[in-house]
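Convert to structure. Protein one:
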Amino acid sequence: GLFRMNPRGKLIRTPGGAERFFTIFVILLASGAFTNLMGGEDAAPGKGVAGFIMQAIWSVVYLATLILFQRGCREFVVAVRRDKLLFLLVALAMVSAFWSDDPFLTFRRSVALIGTTVFGVYFARRFSLADQLRLLSRVFAVAAILSLFFVAVLPQYGIASQAFGYSWQGIYGHKNNLGSAMALGAVVFIFRAFLD
């Protein structure tokens, strides 16, 4: 249906196709996908055009997450109150900029941590466990299919250089990232098999 009951007994609108697509895209991006298009593992984070593009994408993601959280959950303040320890840890990361060797970098990454934490809370509160597993299985299915595509059609991105033994890296910046993503995907599919 269009609406479902949340844990507090309030009627909320169920996530639509665009919201689900956005969630899949964000989780795929958070898994490290497409870093090979941005210079791979060796690219300095936040530096150059690639770093600027990624920062811009993540800024839009964080803004969209706040809007969706407010529209879909309407419980942001409740989430902060309920998950005090989580948000205190995030606040500690922010405060650590005062004694950091590079305060600006620490502050910037702390802002990113806040955005990522808000997305995680949004994902946990907006979707049921069954929906979460469905979305995660789609994320890893897309990652696997795109990785095969990159290996077959765009080998300059999908296959590592001779220094790394021409190993497959797919849509990731390193073969280990691809392996980690596929291992996590396997766990998700196993859980879905037991729960479906």
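Protein two, convert as well:
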Amino acid sequence: SNAVGVQGYALVLNYFLGAAVNAANGIAILVQGTLKGFAFSIALAFRPQIIKQYASQTIEDLQPLIKTATDYTLCMYLTLVTPLIFEAPFVLSLWLGNVPQFTVGMTRIILIATAFNVASFVINSAIQATGKIRTYSILTGICSLLQPLSLFMLFRLDAGVINSYAVMIPLSALSFIVSLVILKINICRINVTAIV
């Protein structure tokens, strides 16, 4: 479902603004993918333990494990991303030389939005451990579809490139909230407020 959001953004950007802005989006996605990969590798290390705790129905051990895994994963991601958000013009100019217009803003926005995806990743492992993923998959798929659709609508309303692109942040937050709600539905005894 994430691929739909990413490819949908590329299609909408190309339709309204052309290849130059789409190139800026591509660079932002490349930076995001590299940094997200580091954080996801940490989260993957916790996945077998999360599945094991759920399978043994030790929810009192599962909840702190999810909290710890989410904290470590998010901390790793934010440690890598925070300096880049603040120093994006410098870092991108070192890497690219001539930085395409909108690349800095798009990179900052996508890195902030990805923090919600990183936080969701561990929670998604717990949801998948339950085996009840149908509703979760549908709702997160809808959230992913809303991203390019919202971008399209904002471009039609002439909201500007960066303002329109920023819709990614609240929609990523919405997807995170959906993950928490589905986790609570699937594992009633878990306290989601203690995880966040």
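The two ends are 23 Å apart (CA to CA). Residues 19-55 form the longest helix (37 residues).
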